[in-house]
Structure formats: C-alpha cells, structure tokens
Amino acid sequence: MMTEIKLCLMFLFSLSFIVSVYMAPAFGDAFHVGTEEKFDFINVVHVGNTKNATVQTGYTIRATIGVGTVWGDDETKLLKITISNPSVKSIPGDAVGSVDDSVNTPFYASWNLGRLQGVYFYPNVGSIPVQSFQKGIAALFQYQLLDGLYEEDDPSGRCKAKYISHSSTRYHKSKSDCYFNANRIERAEYPLRSSLKVSRSADFTVSPEGALQKMVSQDYVKYLLHVHEQLGAYYESVMRLEVEGTVQKIDIHRSSSIQDIVKELNLVSDTLLIDPEISPKCEGSGCLGIIELFKQNKKHLSNDKIGSAQSSSALLELVPVGRKAYLEDLTRILKAKSSVELKGQLMDFLGAVQTISAHKAAKSELKYGSDEELLLAERYLQALAVGSRPQKEIIEDLLEMAREQHTSPKFADTLIQCLASTTQRYAQLEGNSYDTDVVVKVRTFLTTKLKACSEEACMFQYIRGLHNLRCPKTTDLLMKLALEAPRLVSVAAMKALRAFSIYIWNDDFRSKFEEIFFQVSKPYDSSARTLALDILLDLKPDSSELSHLLQVLKSNDKAFEVKQYLLQKLRMSAAKCPAFAADLRRAIESDPAMNNYDVLVPKGLSTALRRPFSTLPSFNASLTSLQEMSGGVLKRGSVDLTLEVADESTSLFTLGLYARGLSAFVSSNEEDSNEAEEDTTAGMELAIQGTVMRPLEFFSGKGELMGHVWSGTASEPTPAYQAITLLQDNEEHFHSHNGAALNLRANGAISIDLNGQVTMSLWGRNAQSKVEQNIGITMAGQLSLDTLFAKLAVRFSAIQEPRLHLTSALDFSGDPALCMQLLQPKNQMKVEFVRTILLAGTKQPVERKTSTTYNLNGLTHALNRKNNEMCNLIAKK
Ligand SMILES: *[C@@H]1O[C@H](CO)[C@@H](O)[C@H](O)[C@H]1NC(C)=O
Ligand SMILES: *[C@@H]1O[C@H](CO)[C@@H](O)[C@H](O)[C@H]1NC(C)=O
C-alpha cells in the first residue's frame, strides 16, 4: 500500500516537474512576490549625419528603476515600477536638463510568462510623454527564454520578435515588421521617395533561475533620400538596464486579481503601444506663423529670384507651415499690396500647399480677363497639377469648373490638364485606384467631351487630358484615334499613348504600334511613326523583333528622317545597355544587305542622344534629346531632364518643340509634299514632372511668321516658363522602443526660369535659337523628436543651381545644315547638416552646423559627329 502511494507520488512529482519545465521553462525565480529589485537605467539617444557619424548630438538619461512584485501567482505578476533620481545630460558637453517630477510617480505593469499585457497609471498624473517613457522602461522587462518567434507589443509597435539563446543565460532578440501608425505620405515616383533602414534588437542576460540581470536594447534608424545616397540622418537609442543586486521587501496586495487591484487603486489601464500627439505645437523656423514666415522669405520670392536656389529653399520653408494655415491668413498674404510683385510665386506656393484653404484662397484669383490674370490663374493650376497630395474635394471642384463654359481657350485647356493630372495623382494614392468614384467621373467627363468634339483643336485638348490622366481604360480609345484619325490627331493620340507605363502593352497593342511604324495598311505621319517606334523600343525588343525593325533601313521607304531617327535611337539604346548593343551588332552583322554604308548612314538630320546631366556627388540625372527633323527643319523635338535612381527614373522637366509647315520656307523637298498645304505653326510643349501643359504657340499662320521674321518680335529672350514646384514631399513617423516618436520629413523644390529666343532671317537664309534654363534645386530632409527630455533634430539639405543652355543654328542657304550645342556652365552644390538640441528645462537650443561645398564641372555635351561637322560648316560661313 505504502509503496503504491510512494510510486503514485513519485509519478505525480515527475509529471508536475515535466509540466512545469514545459510551461514556464525557467522563469521560476523571476519577480518573487513581495520583493523589490533595483536596476540602473541609462538611455543614450543621439542623432547625426549618415555620411559622417563622428559628430553626435543627443542626450543621456540616467535613473534608478525599482521593480516590486506586489501580487502574483506562478505565471502572472503585477509589477510596481518606480523611477527615481532621473537626470538628463547633453551629448556632447555636460549641459544638464530638468525632468518632470511626475516621472517619479509609480506605475504598474502586468507580466505573464515574459509578456507584458498592460500598464496601469494613476489618473491625471503623467503627460503623454511621461507615460511613453514609462512604457519604454516597462517593456524592458519583456523577454522569453525559449527560442522562437513571438508577437510582442511595445512602444515600437506590434513587432515580430525572434529569440535566439547563446547559452542558458544569454539571449538575443531581434525585432522586425513593427506595426505602428506611421501616417506615411510619400510621392508615387520612386526616385522622389525616401527610405527608412531600421534595426531593432536586444541582448539580455538572466540568472540560472530566469530572473532578468541585464537588458541592452537598441534601435537604429537611417533616413535617406533616394536621389542622394549620401544625404540622410540617423537616430540611435540604446537603453541599458542592469540589476544592482539588492533585494528588498515590499508590501503586497491581497486582492484576488489584477483587475481588482486596478479598480481598488483607481488606475487607468493602457497598452505598451504609444499614441503620441505628433503634430507639435510649432514647427521649425523658430515657430513662426505663416504671415511672419512669409515676411521673412519675401525677398527670396521676387521675380528675379526665379531659377535660383533661394526661391526653391523659400518655398520649402513656407509649404509645411502653409499646410496648417487658415484661409484668412493665406488670403491676407495674397491680397497684400506688397505681394503684387510676387503673386506668381504665391500661386506656386498655394498650389504646392494643396489644402482646401489654399484652394479657396487661390480661387479668388482664377480670372482670365487680362493676360496678367490668365498667367496667375494658370500658375496656380499648373502648380496644383504636379502636387502630390491631391484632395477629393479639390478635384470635384475642378471638375465642376471644367464643366462650365470658359471664354478663354487657354484657361479652359489648363484647367482640363490640371484636373486630369491631379486626378491621376489621386488615383495613385494608397487606397485609391482608377476605379475610385471621383476618378471614374473625371475619366467619363474627358472621354465624353472628346467624343463630342467637332474640331481638332478641341480634340487635342481632351487627348492631352487623357495623356495626363494615364488611365489604362482609355488606351483603346486613344489607339483607335492613333490608327484612324486624321494625321495631327493621330500624332496627338500617339503622344498620349507614349506617356503610359510600358507594362500595360500586350501583344495586341504591340502589333498595332508595329502597324503604325511599318505603315502596314496605310501611310502615317512620320511623328506618329517615330512615337510608335519609341514605344516599340521601350518594350525591349528581342533579337527577332529587332531584326524586323531593322528591315525598315533596307526598305525603299522614302522617309529617310524616320530611318535616321531609328538608327539614332538604336545607337542611343546601345550606348546605355551593353546587352542591347551586342544584340544589335549581331542583328546587323548577320545580314550582309544591312551591313553597308548606304543603309547604316542614311541622310537626314534627326538625332537621339542621351547625356549625363548630373552625377555623384550630386544626384544622377540625364538629358535625353530627341529631334525629329523634316525637310531640314525641326518637326518634333524634346529635351528631357530625367532623375535616375537605380533602375527607376522620373522626368523632372521636358521641353518639347514642334513646328509644322516650316520646311516650305527652307527647302522644297520631295518628302514634304503632304505638308505643303499645311498651316505654318511652331510652339513649345512643356511637361513638368510628367504633367504636360497646354502648348505655347510661338506663331500660327504664315502671316504671323512673316510678321515675326520682319519685326523681330521673337528676337528678344522671352520667358517661356517660370515656376517653383515641389519635388520630394514625404512625411512619416517612427516609433522607437524608448517611447520617442520620430518625425521624418523629406522635401525638395525646383525653381525654373526658362527663356528662349528665336531669330530667323529669310535674307541670310538662316535661323538661330537659344534656350536658357536656370534651375535652383533644394533637396532637404529632417529627423526630429520631441520627448520628455529634449527636442532633438537633424536637418540636412543639398542646394544647387545647375543651368542649361541649348543653342541651335540652322543654315538653309544650301543643303540644310543644323548645328546644336548643349552647354552646362559649372556650378556648385552646397550640402549642409544642422543638428540642434534643446534640453528640457533649458532656454537656449544648441545648434551645430557643418557644410561642404562641391564644385561641379561645366559640361559641353558632345552631340554627335554629324552635328560637329555641320557646326564647323556653319562656323565657316
Ligand atoms: C567628419 O566630421 C568631422 C568633424 O566635422 C571631420 O573632422 C571629419 O573629417 C569628417 N569625416 C569625414 C569622413 O568627412
Ligand atoms: C549614381 O550613379 C552612380 C554611378 O553609376 C552609382 O554608383 C550610384 O549608385 C548612383 N546613385 C543613385 C542614387 O542611384
């Protein structure tokens, strides 16, 4: 009998032993009820420049943390946590700040087998920053002793925590995919975004019985602009907790559950997640309101500062504050007498701000009675069109306006382009698509209007609208126009199709583009053909498709400019991509009929070139110049400035030129018979960040051209485009383990002054054109935090003023000769880092600034051999 009982007991004992090992692997000794342990706590926080981390700015917090277990069973404990003697010191230096007394008030945390299930505060004691800090400390007591993947909440968010043991007492925890509300706003274009690199981990040591001895937790964050690998800020926080070794007795609570204690003590329960009030009461620039800030920046916004970095930097200062401004203040600025001279820039500002208040303020200026009024109205609409924070209400209002009749065709056109572009950007926002209600409404409006057009001018306007909307559902309509409409409409439709992402072109579309390029069933305008070719080449033809394209060179097609254009584009692609170059060489060499001088050196002046515009240490950008010529003069030309990051690119600015009927003045070429009876016209088409604007016509009709030629009105440099627009426009928050919430922001702006001059002499049979573009670019960012202990920030910026001169000389006294020159004067880039800290309880922020100036060489872009020959020829005359 006795032995049976003994056996039974032994069995039960070993069973309970196994169970307890399984259930609570070694927490056995952690948090004994009725005892309190003291820990040394230190948190070192610093921020700096990612490129040079030798200089740090930040602060150190020290405190003693008492952790008493006031209630508990085997698995669950109620911890009473008391912070005492907190102090804060700056890095570098020994400036001492003061700490809010309410930090010392104890708070509670419920602990269950290594997990913290909640925290409890006395009501109306600590502010949100105090509680966030306390949550950060409580979270240090959250740890597991079995390797594996856990989900844990702490001030960093809801994270995946992976535990790896190095020994029975030493562990490593790495946290990833922490979810918190980042309130992220970012541009859709990859090169204009910013990135966040994060590493979060902890190393800890426990006693053989599983009680926490030491915890070192670290967060490291790097915030970088995509365009400038070197430009960014980092934040690092290391929290270290180490047991002092003395154990004291502490009073315990006799209640039956934690809930009862919470009720008894009248505590407020909370989670470990933080919910910071992010929008700080005031923002940078000494916390000025929009009116003061505007007064300070006014001098940088004058007309003569357009195209300078002062104006791009001023816009960046104003926009964040402008987004919080009231309608009355914005209106006051706009209506001030002293604003008259800089109203254009104010319209840029309101368009960049993109709030309802800014829209209401700007609407009072949307008039077109005079040329000046029209200019201002268009400035606003064009700025709004490239803004990356479109709002539904504003789109609805634009749609409403677009439905009305406007007596100014220019205003009506610009309004449609603004509506279409804003809607396209709205469709890209997270949670939206081309099926979103308001987007569908705008698409229906544009397509219905287009179908109702009776005149070509009307069609161009709405086709351009579809170009800016870039909705895949309109491609069938555009393709039909490209294939069937009269020549000029077909070209406009092809231009629109060229703007779409190449990923939507399936085999069916590809064969239609081939139909146009090869003129399978009917002749097409040469521009429609070169545009179709652009798309076919963007689609990365394989070797057999490439051989097929090359057949055009051998064919008896008389359009030698199209052949020249093809050859130029192939050479351009080959220069960019070695694999394509190899394919091209193979295709040519394998065909003896192809590989000869007559075929490979067609006559014609069309060119396609790609040249670097900017490289390290600045951003990577290139210029692509495509010039389709006809009868010795330009027919369709574009110079595109593209920002490049890795394999992604985005257009910053495109200067397009078009001319029709001009060749009649220059030569009588057999190729142009179909253009002979055409209207004479020339103009410019600009696209800002991918948004095409209404064309700017230089002249229309032979009479007007002759007028220009004789009177010389076109011979003065005339501003063609002036504006300041936003580039980067990103914002997000980051939650750190110590309860701090980081504010991350990247902003950029570009100020452009483009002016042009054309002179033409029918006597001398020559023409010259000069286009000068002055650009100011500011790309900036900041990382800041505002905690219980300090306000800490690092701001960085890269500022430069690249310029671009494009001249061309055309001589048509004999065989037409065209000489183009593309020049970039040397310039500088200034990179600046500013770190500031203001410790709590002190008055003066400490600011440290470092700046570096890089000299960037000027460039004279070698165009091509043929161009050089012709420049020499023209120079000799
Ligand atoms: C980093 O900054 C420090 C202090 O401004 C300077 O002395 C050092 O040369 C810099 N290092 C690099 C690599 O730029
Ligand atoms: C810029 O181009 C250089 C050289 O091709 C490359 O090493 C660098 O990574 C590029 N920078 C960016 C931001 O893409």
UniProtKB/TrEMBL annotation:
What residue range is the signal peptide? 1-23
One GO CC term, this protein: endoplasmic reticulum
Q: Which GO terms describe its molecular function?
A: lipid binding; phospholipid transporter activity
Sorted alphabetically, which InterPro entries does this protein's record hold?
Answer: Lipovitellin_superhlx_dom (IPR011030), MTP_lip-bd (IPR045811), MTTP (IPR039988), Vitellinogen_b-sht_N (IPR015816), Vitellogenin_N (IPR001747)
Q: What's an example GO BP annotation here? A: lipoprotein metabolic process
Task: List the subcellular locations.
Answer: Endoplasmic reticulum
Keywords attached to this Swiss-Prot or TrEMBL record, sorted alphabetically, are: Endoplasmic reticulum, Signal, Transport
Say which domain of life the source belongs to: Eukaryota
Vitellogenin domain location, by residue?
Answer: 31-645
What's the name of the protein? Putative microsomal triglyceride transfer protein
State the organism of origin. Answer: Anopheles triannulatus
